[in-house]
Design goal:
coiled coil; 215 residues; lipoprotein; Substrate Binding Domain Of Dnak, Chain:A, Domain 2; 2 domains; mainly alpha; Lipoprotein and hemagglutinin (VlhA) family protein; 0% strand
């Protein structure tokens, strides 16, 4: 009975239309199979993330070591500016800021890199500032270096002097020269020390050294 019904349906709609029904159903099934979702494999992604984390830690450790290396040279670097009070103070502050970042175990790679760059820039800037100061105060530099040489001569004279009278005459001049050298070339405010006063001290030293044979 069903076969007759199908035959009659085919006769009504035509054989071509009926034949198209079956392929359409098959195509729907094929499309359904083809669109089956594939679960992505996250194992490679996880491994890549781990490698990235390890690389980041390695870079962070390297940067920390480099910054620590710069900090280890602080005494020598800062000591180069004992006669330049303002320049030295600025460099000390840069070292202190960098040390605070290194000592903080929670510092990130970015913070360590920034601290390293800032310290390197401060070191370079201090050198440039010193060169600029020397160029602008060439006469003061000359007098200052002369006082250093004269002090050496006074020291030898004080060691050789057998009489308290000679020592008494040399000591005030010597003390004035020592104060000039202790003050350095540059004040904490950034200005140069008094050239007239340094020149007077140098002249007094020269006169005292010249009179030693008479004393």
């Amino acid at each position: 009975m069903k076969k007759k019904s199908l035959f009659r349906l085919a006769s009504l709609i035509g054989a071509g239309s009926f034949a198209a029904v079956v392929p359409a159903s098959c195509n729907s099934l094929i499309r359904s199979v083809n669109h089956t979702e594939t679960v992505p494999d996250d194992s490679n992604r996880s491994n890549n993330n781990q490698d990235g984390d390890q690389g980041g830690l390695s870079n962070q450790s390297e940067t920390r070591n480099q910054l620590s290396g710069l900090l280890n040279k602080q005494a020598n670097q800062v000591g180069m500016y004992n006669e330049y009070k303002q320049i030295q103070a600025g460099l000390k502050s840069a070292y202190e800021a960098a040390k605070a970042v290194v000592d903080n175990t929670n510092s990130t790679s970015e913070q360590l890199n920034e601290a390293k760059t800032a310290l390197e820039n401060a070191i370079s800037q201090a050198e440039r500032n010193k060169d600029s100061f020397n160029q602008n105060n060439a006469q003061l530099i000359g007098v200052y270096n002369q006082i250093k040489e004269q002090i050496s001569g006074i020291n030898e004279s004080l060691d050789r002097a057998a009489y308290s009278g000679i020592r008494a005459k040399l000591r005030p001049i010597y003390q004035a020269a020592i104060i000039v050298l202790q003050n350095g070339l540059q004040t904490a405010g950034g200005s140069a020390v008094s050239l007239p006063y340094a020149t007077k001290v140098s002249s007094d030293l020269s006169a005292a050294l010249a009179k030693l044979p008479e004393w």
